[in-house]
Amino acid sequence: MEPSVVKAEVLMKMSQQKKRISPRNYKYRLFELTSNCITYYEYEKGKKGAMKGSVATDSICCVQTVQPEGDAPVQRQFPFQIVYDKGILYIFAKDEDSRRSWVGVLSEGTRNNAKLMETYHSGFYMEGRFLCCKQTSKASPGCTLYKAGESENATPVFNKSLPPLPGLEGRDRLALPPIPKEMKSSPSLVDTWCNDATKPDLERETDDRWKVKNADGNHGGVAPACLQEAALDGNSLTESRKRLTKRSCTVKCQQNNKPKMDLSDRSISFDTHSATQPLIFPQSDNVEDYSWYGGNMSRVKSETLLQQMGKEGAFLVRDSSHKGSYTVSLFSLALNKTTGTVRHYLINTTDDKQFYLAENLLFGSIPKLISYHQLNGAGLLTRLRHPALGSDTIPSSGYGDWELRREEITLVRQLGSGQFGVVQLALWKGRCEIAVKTIKECSMSTDEFIEEAKIMMRLKHPKLVSLHGVCTEAYPFYIVTEYMENGNLLEYLKTHGDECPPSRLLDTCLDVCDAMCYLERQQFIHRDLAARNCLVHKNLTVKVSDFGMARYVMDDQYTSSAGTTFPVRWSAPEVLSYTRFSSKSDVWAFGVLMWEVYTLGKQPYEPHDNKQVAENVMRGCRLHRPQLASEKLHCLISSCWYQNPEDRPPFHQIFEDLQAFHEDRQHIDSVWDSSDKTTEVQIIHAKQELNL
User: Fold this and answer.
1) Could you read off the pLDDT of 451-498 as tens digits, one per residue?
2) What stretch of H or E contains 366?
3) What pLDDT score was predicted for residue 282?
4) Same domain, yes or no, for 511 and 637?
């Protein structure tokens, strides 16, 4: 039995222009709405004709009005839009009453859909861009806040800014470069992906990434896609940059001789060379000052609240049934992708009034404990991401000079688009080239997106891609970075590798290692180091980018939650087995990156698939020596691949060894004879001693 028609009317429809060359036209169609779809038919001379299209109601992400075109005729004065998983359907009602009726009934019927958008575009997509905000990608995030069920025109949001990040007074923003007389454009690459895990099995997610499964066989999360790049021609950009003003910030220090790490007092000092504060603690030790505190909330009520919120990492702190104690209630989709899971963690207290969830991490107050676990899961099901009860009441400094004026940024063209993010070439004040990163609708939360910007604010090094600022006073949020004219390192090696002398390949490895030494000193792990995530400046300096997976750690270890995706071919054995990340897993990935450099961009372990790669790596198989790498250099590369993480050299030691190679030019010219090629994979025992 077919579902009954809820609503029917003859309306004008604009062609969807699914192909760039498709013409824009308008035709009257008979629209019929049922409980499971909206269908439109040909309609001529009062008769219903053939079906022309249909949209399932459960695929609808947004139903809202659209601003009419400035010179629109009378019959196109009352448009509305249906945004669904395959595109945007623009429809024109005959009058305001008709439009309000359709938007109302559709919004009401779809308000509980799983993939509703947070924002939408209030203008048409015409001539390759949205009329409301001038963005060129159809997948670009909206500029107006969307609330399901509201049929009136919403107003752009200008008051939802990034969460406050106190303690940045000790660091000046790197100013945007001065406006050059000439312009140049070319490619850029940014990946966007995330997250945090227990002992996993591995499941193939894409050709390049695997997904973590927990012991029960459940999993969550989605794998990201690397962004594609596009090039523009032009002239070069000036390199002058404003130097950071030397600052210092000191917090009182108290050393602790306990075997556990005591974080109740910690000394942090930095200057221009090390312009980052490893951990920024909250300003108040009183739990009642924070939005995540739920007071005397019952276990059942906390579970209901978190499940209704439905966000990965939603959490609250409540009074425990144990008198004088507190419990962290945490929601995650990692174990059950459909309904999610709420876990409850008792905050333990030591005899000297220190607090902890993980036994090796002690804190002087509960807010300090929560602040740390917002950066690092450290044994929890996932990080504490979203306070379930609103915004913190503690006043703190905002982003200040990091906030850029959106009207000074002109988007030029899309450089790349992946499952989560869009990267666009833009001009600042009409002339200065910058890269602008936004998120796609329905792909991830804005809170997850801005994690990368918050990390970049804490880090400053010549071999890291620089953050110029953010735009957070209206949707979509922007992360604005320096523009790297030669694109990502992987594509550069494939395209220009044959032109690179051996000394240039060694300089590339030194540049990346220099950046990783800095991250190692700052207690950050990158977790996604690969040639595709490094960018090449016009002067051929290579800089590390893509901090979407970077994490601050205090004990040089980070275990991700179930549902995490990771690149198998760059992953160490402990990551493949337990998703256990550390600076030594970054060292492993750096060894694979050096192999990429000296093979001029070949895929590691080709032609083996991910399953074969993981099995071979766990058995002790390693990549063969590249033809362009000398025996001594290959020994250094291989030392990054010891089975035991503790046997791998730290980055500062690798950097010293690479510098020694740089000074001794003899090995650079000693290229491996092509007749000595070994098989694709060479067995190297994990405990083998190598003479470096």
Assistant:
1) 777 778 888 888 998 888 888 888 788 889 999 989 899 999 999 988
2) helix 366-373
3) 59
4) yes
Find the Cα–Cα–Cα–Cα dihedral 448, 452, 454, 458, rounded to 10°.
150
SS3 449: helix
d(CA 39, CA 59): 13
In a domain, 671, yes or no: yes
pLDDT in tens, 637-646: 999 999 999 9
What is the extent of the structural domain holding 347?
A: 284-387
Say whether 58 is catalytic: no
437 in a known ligand binding site: yes
Q: For the chain, what's the residue count?
A: 692
- Residue 150 CA: distances (Å) to CA of 62, 117, 145: 11, 13, 11
pLDDT for 81 equals 96
CA distance 314 to 142: 24
pTM strictly above 0.85: no
Q: Which helix (H) or strand (E) holds 352?
A: none
Helices (H) and strands (E) in the chain, counts: 12, 34
Which of 145, 173, 193 is a domain's end point? 145
Q: At what angle do helices 651-663 and 583-598 cross, to 10 degrees?
A: 30
Residues 548 and 192: beta-carbon distance below 8 Å: yes
Higher pLDDT pick, 646 / 244 = 646
Number of domains in the chain: 3
In the structure encoding, which two tokens stand for residue 447, read together? 């809170």
Average pLDDT (532-558) is 76
CA dist 485 and 488 (Å) reads: 9
Q: Among 557, 200, 551, 197, which Cα is nearest to 361's?
A: 557
Distance (Å, whole) CA 588 – CA 572: 6
Residue among 191, 528, 586, 657 flagged as catalytic: 528
Q: What is the pLDDT of residue 359?
A: 60
Q: Is the pLDDT of residue 246 over 70?
A: no
Which one of 122, 145, 168 terminates a domain? 145
Close Cβ partners of 480 (under 8 Å, ≥ 6 residues apart): 404, 409, 426, 428, 434, 435, 436, 437, 467, 468, 469, 470, 471
Number of Cβ atoms within 10 Å of the Cβ of 660? 13
Q: What is the pLDDT of residues 390-438, one digit of tens each?
A: 644 333 334 567 888 889 999 998 887 655 678 889 998 888 899 998 8
What are phi and psi for residue 483, nearest 5 degrees? -100, 125
